[in-house]
Amino acid sequence: MKAAVLHAIGKPPHFEQFLDPTPGEGEVLINVSAAALKPVDKQMAAGTHYASPREFPVVCGMDGVGRLEDGSRVFFGGARRPYGAMAEQTVVRRVQCFSVPEELDDVTAAAIPNPGVSAWLSLKHSAKLAAGETVLILGATGVTGKLAVQIAKILGAGRVVAAGRNEHVMSTLHELGADSTIRLDKPDEELIAAFRREAGEKRFEVIIDYLWGRPTEALLKAITGKEFAIGESETRLVEVGESAGATITLPAAVLRSTALTILGTGGMPSWDILSDAFQQVMNSVARGTLRIETERVPLAEIEDAWERDAHAHRLVVIP
Ligand SMILES: NC(=O)c1ccc[n+]([C@@H]2O[C@H](COP(=O)([O-])OP(=O)(O)OC[C@H]3O[C@@H](n4cnc5c(N)ncnc54)[C@H](OP(=O)(O)O)[C@@H]3O)[C@@H](O)[C@H]2O)c1
User: Fold this and answer.
1) pLDDT (tens digit per residue) in 224-241
2) Which among 149, 243, 248, 265 is the best mutation to test ligand 1's pocket, defined by most ligand atoms within 8 Å of the CB?
3) Which fold does the domain 115-263 belong to in CATH?
4) Which atom of ligand 1 sits closest to the CA of residue 39?
5) I need a surface site. Which of 34, 91, 92, 140 has the fewest CB within 10 A?
6) Residue 215 CA, closest ligand 1 atom number
């Protein structure tokens, strides 16, 4: 079969022939129709992800959409290495396949689950967003951030503030439900003032962070208290991505002066929570209340696609 094959960390994959997969016990063979090219796929190949491959050659791609041998169409994740989603065929455990609503085309169905389910779980399961709360999406111009803006509204957020640096994409975020926006490409003092202004008296109750690095440091300075305060409302910050930096300096004062909780997104939620999030996201897309922009890329062009910066839309590889 043809596949996007990685031979070493730090290099793009090549389009080439790879051994056909054979399913083992509890596994199914999938004829792949579409696989999204996501930041995590690039982090894996670059060696910057904690689960990056250590043995080569290996096929790239974490998840995708395809047909089982009985013809049913599924979204799948977690192919058994050395197989991956960016190939004509792959193997996964049967329990890692979810059926896809008929109304959704293969490209949308492949693109939406990773960022959409992640945003849904971050807001609902990790942050426990309650109706009416004020939400800040830090890194709202990326594919996942744009979905998080929409999902925050679907889940009943009172006010959604969207922060990002890409001017063109920022101008589209109001249409997706953002009540106000913060441009991040400004000097630190101005940025801190903008965060304070948008947080207002009520503060941000939920922050979903796709950036980390400098923008998060400015945000933490903005929410650090200046005096003793009793009965302050709680801020739940959920760390999801690191598009702006892998580390931050965390001043002790922010944790002592505010009711701030920093949450991670590692570990799997229960199967019920995961499949509920998947269904809700897929149904929202099918109903047209959740939108994602995509672009099809032939598998044969994977090497070029790998190096491209796809602003605010997701490239989807078609074998
Ligand atoms: N753990 C999970 O389940 C999960 C799921 C989805 C995503 N993530 C992570 O979340 C992050 C974002 O994912 P994504 O799908 O939204 O990625 P994406 O579509 O590639 O978007 C990345 C965004 O980050 C912005 N950005 C990059 N550097 C920046 C900086 N220094 N300051 C401000 N903005 C900056 C880019 O803006 P420009 O257009 O200006 O370059 C772009 O809008 C990644 O780290 C990804 O791995 C994690």
Assistant:
1) 988 776 666 789 999 999
2) 243
3) Quinone Oxidoreductase; Chain A, domain 1 (3.90.180)
4) 47
5) 91
6) 32
